[in-house]
Specification:
Length: 544
């Protein structure tokens, strides 16, 4: 079904163009698609191949000193899936995870998919009140927790979920084996695999940069398409050893990057937490060739005392996403690791990857997030949904099989996101004549000062160009005279004053865009994916 979408898109775009010539026979894309639709149900019902069958004895996972081959990994996932079914978990029921990166996280993820349930991914960094709030909203049948967070599972959490199980505990290990220790087989599948593919499989929570996190509900098809797209666009092959560093509770960490690695039959090195020195050592030891990081991790790697290009000689691609790449970082990476490509990746929890900036384009199209990924339908539109011309700023909208089903239990937010058959990302950007997209900010982050629209990213770019600025964030606050005024929080690395930075911005931007105030801080609060939590900064500023 998912691969059929490739043909379906071609049929929509070039319906009367000849798709196939075989001897004297010709078929246009419309007819070719029609024939494929007739056969598709048979193909879907047949099942298809799996990494465990193709690469049975190949190492699938490395985590510290632990290794699992694909056959064993498959067996463990089947075991836990059968446990869920035997426990009465039905298709569409929720289970939840509160885990750091680990092989067990992958087992729970794939078992959930095979059981037909919906996995609610809860960041283990959340406070107890936040965990309870999500549990009460989603009502899972089971919560699987990391052993490291068991001490935070108090009475309130336990009252919000019927059962709690610690990954790695004796109860969890018992759940991985059925039939008196015999290798468990794959659980029974619904007879209509087409329906199964369209069913929801997981829920991840948006970064919460504008307020209360929303649970993006995604289907099997959506995440399969996103994982396949990411593997293709980042040129991941079965020869790669892939680093899994981004938190797996985030959509890009598990269901897009890691799942893409499994799909390609890669060996994945799972890191429980980010540590540049540990990453350098593991890359040297295991020959990691491809990794996905958020920008702050790339910067941390390049500036770490442990950084050594010789020990990173196997690394051929650094995929980056989750937050905008700050100015100069690609150039810094290119100089430090000239043998390694930098593939920038823009997307959302609601959509998967939307645009890709290939390494070959990072010079000529610097400052952009690349072009729409293969198979992605993307437009830049005005407030009424009309496409804007190249160079004009508008909101990015998209549609396709990779889209979420909606926000769980929130019809109002879902209706706000989906309008006119398109998903409105809330991100503002412009494209050039060749289709390369430059992001300029969030629609909800626009600062309207004295009747002028100010995009915070413009000020952040100006501030970041100063050599004494390590990190920054700009947001708007109410202003009696101008309506709103931009405020900048800055992490500095050198001797610079607030007045110096305001002058610096005035030299680079229109005067009305300069920050009214610069406040120096030790760190900028970010989500696990690296996005700035501006609502925390704004709230702290207003409470001063």
């Amino acid at each position: 079904m998912q691969l059929g979408e490739i043909l379906r898109r071609a049929a929509r775009r070039w319906p009367e163009k000849t798709a196939v010539i075989a001897g004297e026979r010709r078929l246009d894309f419309r007819e070719y698609d029609r024939l494929g639709n007739g056969v598709a149900p048979l193909l879907v019902a047949g099942g298809g191949g799996a990494p465990a069958r193709r690469w049975a004895e190949k190492t699938a996972v490395i985590a510290g000193e632990r290794r699992l081959d694909f056959r064993e990994y498959d067996r463990l996932a089947n075991g836990f899936a059968n446990f869920l079914i035997a426990a009465g978990v039905r298709p569409g029921d929720r289970i939840a995870s509160l885990m750091f990166n680990s092989p067990e996280y992958g087992v729970v993820h794939f078992a959930n998919a095979r059981a037909g349930s919906v996995l609610v991914h809860i960041p283990p960094l959340y406070a107890e009140a936040e965990i309870v709030e999500i549990l009460e909203r989603t009502r899972p049948r089971l919560l699987v927790v990391d052993e490291a967070v068991q001490d935070r599972i108090g009475a309130e959490v336990r009252s919000a979920v019927p059962a709690v199980m610690a990954a790695g505990s004796p109860a969890f290990e018992d759940a991985l084996t059925t039939d008196s220790g015999a290798p468990p087989t794959a659980p029974g599948r619904p007879p209509d695999r087409t329906t199964e593919a369209a069913a929801p499989v997981a829920m991840t929570f948006t970064g919460g940069t504008t307020g209360r996190p929303k649970g993006a509900l995604v289907s099997h098809t959506a995440r399969y398409v996103s994982a396949a797209s990411t593997a293709r666009e980042h040129q991941v092959t079965e020869r790669d050893v892939v680093g899994v560093v981004v938190p797996m509770f985030h959509a890009v960490g598990l269901m897009i990057w890691y799942q893409g690695a499994i799909l390609r039959g890669c060996t994945s090195v799972i890191f429980r937490k980010w540590d540049p020195a540990e990453f350098v050592a593991a890359t040297e030891r295991h020959g990691i060739s491809s990794v996905f990081l958020v920008p702050v991790q790339v910067r941390g790697l390049l500036r770490s005392p442990a950084f050594d290009p010789k020990r990173l000689a196997s690394l051929r691609n650094i995929g980056v996403g989750g937050a905008p790449t700050p100015p100069g970082l690609i150039e810094e990476c290119r100089e430090a690791l000239p043998h390694c490509g930098y593939t920038d990746h823009y997307g959302q929890s609601e959509t998967g990857p939307l645009t890709i900036l290939k390494p070959r384009d990072t010079v000529e199209h610097a400052g952009t997030v690349g072009k729409a990924a293969e198979g992605v339908e993307l437009r830049i539109v005005d407030g009424d949904g009309n496409p804007v011309p190249p160079g004009a700023v508008g909101e990015l909208v998209t549609r396709g099989p990779y889209m979420m089903e909606g926000y769980f239990g929130d019809e109002e937010e879902t209706a706000r996101y989906f309008r006119g058959g398109w998903g409105w990302t809330g991100d503002l950007g412009r494209s050039d004549a060749d289709g390369y997209v430059t992001l300029v900010g969030r629609s909800r982050e626009i600062i309207i000062s004295g009747g002028f629209n100010i995009h915070p990213s413009e000020i952040e770019t100006a501030l970041s160009s100063h050599p004494a600025v390590d990190d920054c964030a700009v947001f708007g606050v109410p202003d009696e005279r101008w309506g709103e005024a931009p405020i900048a929080y800055v992490v500095r690395t050198g001797d610079v004053s607030a007045a110096d930075l305001i002058t610096h911005c005035t030299d680079l931007l229109a005067r009305y865009k300069r920050p009214r105030e610069v406040i120096f801080v030790d760190t900028i609060p970010r989500t696990p994916s690296g996005k700035t939590q501006k609502h925390h900064l704004r709230d702290a500023y207003l409470k001063r």
